[in-house]
Specification:
rod-shaped; four-stranded antiparallel β-sheet; 135 residues; 24% strand; alpha+beta; 59% helix
Length: 135
């Protein structure tokens, strides 16, 4: 009477195997999710590294901005340029719209970290500008 029924052992073994099977499927799904999240994180890291290489080079940014501001048409606009260790502020109370278009075309097509930009139309041919570029 103290013997264990072999059918009970088989049933217990079957229940344990079913439990492990479902647990294994859940772990496989978690692994697939983790893999997809890893791939997304990896592409984001590559993108951020590329952006860092473009925006983090202070000397390249300064030289590029000085080259733009040193052009004859833009230098003739008499911009007020305030340089600081962390940023440069460019402003003008009244400048020609064609010069402003040329300046904005060059600045916006380059890789500068523009933190503030305010352009106000004064007339058909004149506008005021306030711009801050961070290093």
């Amino acid at each position: 009477m103290n013997q264990v029924n072999p059918l009970h052992l088989g049933g217990l073994l079957l229940v344990v195997l079913m439990f492990l099977f479902f647990k294994l499927n859940g772990i496989k799904e978690e692994l697939a999710e983790a893999k997809s999240e890893f791939l997304v994180s990896q592409t984001l890291a590559v993108d951020l590294n590329a952006l860092k290489s473009v925006y983090a080079d202070k000397t390249k940014t300064k030289k590029s901005l000085e080259r733009i501001l040193g052009q004859k048409s833009i230098a003739a606009a008499k911009l007020h340029v305030k340089r600081d260790k962390k940023f440069i502020k460019i402003s003008s109370q009244s400048m020609d719209a064609a010069v402003l278009n040329g300046l904005m075309g060059k600045v916006l097509n380059a890789s500068f970290n523009i933190t503030a930009l305010k352009i106000k139309r004064l007339s058909d041919t004149k506008a005021s500008l306030e711009m801050e570029i961070k290093w």
